[in-house]
């Protein structure tokens, strides 16, 4: 016996669900950046990049919230303030070990690829559903994410050099 779907969803419902999912992705990016900012103090270029990424993620979350509202679906209640306080306290308790910097930058690069893929999917859905204004907004967000990815990648030689130098000092 094959499976039958009892709850068929319309294209717009699927799109709005994907928008909410992307808002969750942006919220997680904000939380992660807030929890990792203290680690990058020894890496000025990375710290600047993370601050810019934080501002961009907050802006993107506002844009997605606006798109949801435009379609009559309010965004979930933001929990950034509570989670940022918890992340900051957690970071202070764990001391921000330096050895995680490279691993965290690589994870951030992978997460950003996930964000870009999510935006590409949303753009395709918006275009197919005739939501041209949404598609234009989402395309701008995708371009900003792509530029941020390139900026982070360009910092890798600097971050790696600083990481190795700090590691060599620690073992001396």
From TrEMBL:
InterPro entries: DUF892_YciF-like (IPR010287), Ferritin-like (IPR012347), Ferritin-like_SF (IPR009078). This is Uncharacterized protein. It comes from Gluconobacter kanchanaburiensis NBRC 103587.
